[in-house]
Please model this.
Amino acid sequence: MDNNGEPRGPSRLLFAAMLILACIILIGMSATGFIGPIEDIISIPLSAAESLLGGVVGAVQDLGGGVSEQSDPQLRAYVQELEIALAHYQAESFRDREIVQMYERLTDLLDYQTTLDGAQFVIAEVVDRDTSGFVQTIAINRGVRDGIAEGMPVVTEKGLVGQVVRVSAIASRVLLITDRGSAVAARLQSSRVEGVVEGQGIDTLNLVWLPVNVEIAPGDFVLTSGIGYNYPYGLEIGRVANVRLTESGLFQEAEVLSRVDFDRLEQVMVITSFQPVDLSQLEITPIAP
Amino acid sequence: MTTLYLAFFILPALAVLQATVIGAVQWLGSGPEIVYVVVICWAMVVNPVEGMAWGLLGGAALDLLSGMPVGTTSLAYVIAAFGAGLLQDLIFQSVVILPMLVGAVGTALSHVVILIVLTFGLGYDIPVEESLATITLPAVFYNTVLIFFLFPVIRRVHRRLYADQRR
Model:
C-alpha cells in the first residue's frame, strides 16, 4: 500500500490487467455493434452538450478579434464606452452576417436538392470533427429521430461528403470520403470508365483500378457509379487532377480533387431516401457437379 | 477510490471540451489532450490505480464522442496511467521534471496503443509512421507543456479535497 492507502505491486498489476481486459472486451463489443443501444443512450447527453458547445465555439471562431485596450488612463473611460458600443455593433453585425451566410448556404443546398429528382434530404449542422487525427469523421446534429440511418450518403451542393456510420437518437457520425478506410465506386463522366475512389487521409482522393487502355483527361468529372449499391448513382465526387500508371503498370490511377472543403463543413445534407443494400446476400454459391 | 465520483462529472465535461473548444484550436495537425493530461496528473498526484480508473472513464467518454470503437482510448489511457505509476516508482521524484517526462512518454505510449488497436485489431488502414510524425509528435509537445501548468493545479485540488475528507 502507498501513502494514500492504495494498492501497489501485484495488486496494482492485477487491477491494471483487469481494466485492460475490460477495455479489450469493450472494444470487441463496440466494434461488432453489440453494445450499440447502450452507447446510443449514453451518447445522448454527451452529444447534446457537444452540440451546444460546438455551436458556441463556431460562433466565437467567426467573430474574430476584439479591440485593443488603451493605455492612457485619462482616455480609458471613453475607450471603455466605445468598446461597449463597438461590441454591441459587432455582435449585431456578426449576427446579420451569420444569417446572410446561413441563408446563402441553405439556398445552395436547396438548389442542389432540385437537381436530384425524387431524393429526400435532411439538412444537418456539423457539430464536431474527430480530433484524434487517426480517422476522418464528423458528427452531425441529426439522428434516428430525424430519420437518419446507418449507410445513408451525406452530401453538400459541392459534392459527396461521406456516409453515416453511427447513429444515436439525436446525432450521427459520418465517415468522410477522405478517410483511408473509405472506398466509393465511381465512374468518369466523359469516358464512362469505372474505378474506386479511395480516401488518403488528406483532402485529395485517389481513383484506382482504371484500365490502361483508356485515355483519361485531367478535368474530367468523377461521379458515384452506384455499383455495389453503397451510394446512389450520379453524385459528384470531384474532378481528375492528374493521371499516372501504377507501379505494376497494369492499371492507371488518378488524383481527384473534390470541391468540398472538408475542414470547413458547416451544413450538410443526408439523403434519407437511399439506404445501402448488402449485395453479398444475393451472391450465388456454385453447386458442386 | 474516495474521489472517484468526481470522475463521473469531470471527465465527460472535459471530453466535451476536448471535442469542441480544444479540437477547434489545433495547430500542426494536433492539439493538447486535456483528458489525457488530467488522467496522468491524477495518476501521479493521487495514485496510479485511481488514475487507471479515470483513464477508463475519460477514454470511454472520448470514444463515444469520436468515431472510434468504445474502449480504444480507454485502453491507451489505462496503460499510460499504469506506466505513469511505474515511472514514478522507478525515477527519483522531481517536482517539475517527472510529470513532464511521464506526460511525454505516456502520450507516445497511448498513441502507439491506439494505432495498434486501430490497425492490427480493427483493420483500419492508417499510415503508422506518418501518424506518429504528424499527430503524436505535436501532441507530445502540447501535452508536456499542458502538464507543466496543470499538474500543480491538480495537486492543489487534491490536497484540498483530501483535507476536507480528513476533517
User: Anything to note?
Assistant: Chain B touches chain A through 62 residues (CB under 8 Å). Chain B has a mean pLDDT of 84. The CA atoms of residues 36 and 52 of chain B lie 11 Å apart.
